[in-house]
Amino acid sequence: MSRTGNHPQVEGAADLATRLAAAEKALSARDKTIRVLMQRVQARQANKRSALALLGQNADLQEVVARKTLELEERTVQLAGSLSLLNATLESTADGILVADGRGGAISFNEKFLEMWHIPREVSDRKSEQEMLEIARAQLEQPEQFMAGVKSLYSGLEKESFDVLEFQDGKIFERYSKPQRIGKEIVGRVWSFRDVTERKKAEHQLGASLKELRGKTAFLEALVNSSLEGILVVNDQGKTAVQNQQFNRLMKIPREIAEDVDDARRLQYVTDSTKNPEKFHEKVLHLYSHRDETSRDEVEFKDGRVMDRYSSPVLDENGNYYGRIWAFRDITDQKRMQREVEETQRQLLLASRQAGMAEVATSVLHNVGNVLNSVNVSTAAILDQVKKSRFANVARVAGLLEEHAGDLAQFITVDPTGRETPAYLRRLGNYLEREQQTLLKEIELIQRHVEHIKEIVAMQQGYAKCFGIVEKVQVPDMVEDALRINAGALARHEVQVVRDYNLTISEIAVEKHKVLQILVNLIRNAKDACHEGSCREKLLTIRLTNSGDWVRIEVVDNGVGILKENLKRIFSFGFTTRKGGHGFGLHSAALAAAEMGASLAAHSEGPQMGATFTLELPLQPPKASL
């Protein structure tokens, strides 16, 4: 590319080259003048015929020559000094300089020019511009364009040019050319070359960086404007640097305040709209005065809305402070939903307690039902025995004896029926005695069953009365109560209970009813697992151990087992693998354990490998439970 114009960075070098050429030309002219004068002197001395006449003139001429010679010598010294200064200046410049006469000759050039264009010394000594052009041409990316530009400039002597040359090896030169003048006469052309490779690379990198920065800036602006959060950035001078429309919408800021660069009016407007203006403003001032602090809190507004407020300083990598960013998010709906969730959780916990109580009550009623079945069996046996009793025969014998009261002796000794009466009475007495023993045995059995029912009901009443109360209890006693509640079902399914109690500390402070709820559920599940399993011998093992400040209760069965993928979900609400199950038992048990600061976990090696449920209870309940 090329264009005309002034280029101070290279014009100075071109002027120096012009002055240098002029000085060299002046020295050459001085030498020519001396030679002419000497030729005149020699011609006059040769003319012997005019010796006398010329003698006086010759003396005058010699005087003039001497004076001129002295002047020329002084001027020569001055020109030599200027020439030396100009040469030193040219050699010290960062540009490569070439002065050409326009007829194929290189009048002058500096070492930088030779170095930049890799001109061999033998070529520079010949001062052939054409040779130098050929060497330059071979290095360029567009040699034909280069040569055309040179030819164009030499065809128009008044032209000035500036363009950029690209090399095959990646270098980039700026080329500046202007005509060389001595006075008003154009005597040649000055070429100036500057290596701008590194500068161009830097400009390219800077351009790429600026483009990338503009892209990132556009991206950040789009991100800020698309954010659901209201964003405000205030610089270190208290002026608004960035704000998105969401911020103005959330804060309901009027347009005239939103357009004000000064943040003072905006801050006052937002402060006045909060429920606690003093607290809000105090926090803002605190953060502006503590530049390194980051903060997050909630702000309530007079219209009932709640905002999540986040603020952090804007710092560079060296910790220099540029301002502060504020982000506001409307969490009104979230807070309302949170309250609803908390209420739902409260109701769920209440339902869990009620479900746990219902499960215990169901187990108690089931156990009572089993005992009542036994009572019913005994009652039926007694009823059947009474119906078949021969006790009525006593009345018939008595009536027969009463009929023969007047001849009782004769009746017993003579009458065949009378003679059989004593033996009959003896047999009847033995029968009635055996019948009495049978009835007494059934009555005693009924009495024991009734006592069992009374114990179960009393135990349930005892747990119901201590609901929500933390008290010290013996762990084995609670386990035995849970087993007693499930005793009927365990017996009916022929599940053998193995007790492995190995406690060093057996007394803990706990809510008995919650522990009973969990244990009843675990034992019943273990019974069902054994019933559904493939083992002929159904075993339920209760293992009690201490672990630090905890008591560990393990309920182990050899039943159907649990799939690995189900272990993570087994305590989830509604999850069940049993037909007809509701998926609430283990969930409520886990909730009850969590309320006591306890933990409930499940483990199984897989299907038909049994399962172990571990309840770990702290020796002392968390403070919140006391």
Structural summary, described in words:
The chain is of the alpha+beta class. It folds into 4 domains: 2-187, no CATH class; 227-330, PAS domain (Beta-Lactamase), CATH 3.30.450.20; 338-458, no CATH class; 468-625, Heat Shock Protein 90. The chain is 57% helix and 19% strand. The protein has helices at 8-46, 51-92, 111-117, 121-126, 129-137, 143-155, 197-226, 245-251, 255-258, 263-272, 277-289, 332-387, 391-403, 408-413, 416-465, 475-485, 487-492, 512-532, 564-567, 585-595; strands at residues 2-3, 96-100, 106-109, 161-166, 172-182, 185-195, 230-235, 240-243, 295-300, 306-315, 321-330, 470-474, 496-502, 507-511, 539-547, 550-557, 599-603, 611-618. Strands 1-4-5-6-2-3 form a 6-stranded antiparallel β-sheet, with helices on both faces. Strands 8-7-11-10-9 form a 5-stranded antiparallel β-sheet, with helices on both faces. Helix 12 (332-387) packs across helix 20. The radius of gyration is 60 Å and the shape is rod-shaped.
Short recap of the structure:
With 626 residues, this protein is α+β, with helices and mostly antiparallel strands.
Q: What count of helical segments does DSSP give? A: 20
What is the average of the pLDDT values? Answer: 80
- What Rg, in angstroms, do the CA atoms define? 60 Å
Beta content comes to 15-25%
As residue ranges, the low-confidence spans are 1-6
> Distance between the terminal alpha carbons, to the nearest Å?
90 Å
- Main sheet properties: 6 strands, antiparallel
Binned, the helix content reads 55-70%
The neighbouring-strand order within the major sheet is 1-4-5-6-2-3
